Amino acid sequence: MTITLYDYPLSGSCYKVRLLLDFLGLDYKKVAVNFYPAREHKTLDFLEINPLGQLPVLDDGDLRLRDAQAILCYLAKKYDGSGQWLPEDPARFGQVMMWLSFAGGEIMAASAARLHDTLGYDLDINEARSNARAAFRVLDDHLTLVRRQGLTWIVGDRPTIADVACFPYVALSGDGGIGHEEFPSLRNWMRAFRQLPAFDSMSGVPEFA
Description:
By secondary structure, the chain is α+β, with helices and mostly antiparallel strands. It folds into two domains: 3-79, 3-Layer(aba) Sandwich (Glutaredoxin); 90-194, Glutathione S-transferase Yfyf (Class Pi), Chain A, domain 2, CATH 1.20.1050. 49% of the residues lie in helices and 9% in strands. The protein is built from eight helices and four strands. The chain has a four-stranded mixed beta sheet with strand order 2-1-3-4, with helices on one face. Helix 1 (12-23) links the parallel strand 1 and strand 2 (28-32). The longest helix has 24 residues, at 125-148. 37% of the residues are buried. The mean pLDDT is 95.
C-alpha cells in the first residue's frame, strides 16, 4: 500500500507531516494541491476528499485522515516501533497530547500572521502577532526549564511529535513579521531540531546560527 499526502509545499501544517514521514523513513506519494492562488482545496473535487477544505490529508490504504496533529499521531503509532515519537508512558503521552493541542491552537496565530503577510489574508495582524508572541513565550519558558534539567526537547529526553508539531510555524514566523530574538531557548531548540537526521528544510526556515 502507498501512503499518499495531499500537500501544499508552503504549508506549515503539511510540512510537519512531511518531516515525520522523513524521520520515520517512509516512502510516500505527494499529490500537489494548489492552495494559492488556485484555491484547489475549496473545489468540489477536493471537498470530496476533505469536506472541511483543509490541508493536509493523508491516505494510507483504505484509511483517510485530515488534521496534521491526528496524522502525526497515526503515523507514530503505526510506524514507529521504538515508541520514541509518541511515548507509551502515560505521563509523557499526556504531555505530548498537551503540546499537540498547543501546536494546533495557540501557535496557529503565527500561521495567521504569515498568511496575512505572504498571501494577503484579511485579519487583525497586530492581534495575530501579539498572540503568536504570547504563545512563543509560553514555549520558550518551558524550554528554559527543560534546559535547566539538562534536556533539549519539549517532552522527555528525545524528540517526539510534540517537537514536530510545534516546529514549523515557530520556525516560519519570520514570514509573518515575528522574529526570534527575544526567545533564546526557542532558538536553541530550533537549532537542535535542524540537526536531527533526515531533517529537511523548506522555504522560510532560517538557519538559527
